[in-house]
Amino acid sequence: MVVGGSGGSRIISAVAQTIIRAMLFNQTIKEAVDAPRFHNQFIPNVTEYETSVPKTIVQALQTQYHQTFSGITKQASVVQALTHMEDGFIHGNSDFRRKTSTYPAGY
């Protein structure tokens, strides 16, 4: 698996969430890259979440872990990922959050 991103301080959380979803939750690379994201910078101690996250998850995190949340439409980070699957094919996805279009250059 190869994962990279852009987006300043949000790169680490975006890449980590993509890897966790693909490797631990067995999501496809498309599902992992396209999934809603969270980001917490710790200063300020506010967790950004994409508003496509189910409200029940946000409410549970607020209630159980006393998190402060701020909803955003799309996170500023952008991730591209490739994974070599057991079927011998390389599967990839470019983040829909990217502001400019991306087209495969071929490989």
UniProtKB/TrEMBL annotation:
Residues that bind L-glutamate: 8
Any Pfam family the entry gives: G_glu_transpept
Top-level taxon: Eukaryota
BP terms from Gene Ontology: glutathione catabolic process
Cited PANTHER family: GAMMA GLUTAMYL TRANSPEPTIDASE, GAMMA-GLUTAMYLTRANSPEPTIDASE 1
MF-aspect GO terms: glutathione hydrolase activity
InterPro entries, A to Z: GGT_peptidase, GGT_ssub_C, Ntn_hydrolases_N
Official protein name in the record: Gamma-glutamyltransferase
Species name: Panagrolaimus davidi
This protein's GO CC annotations: plasma membrane
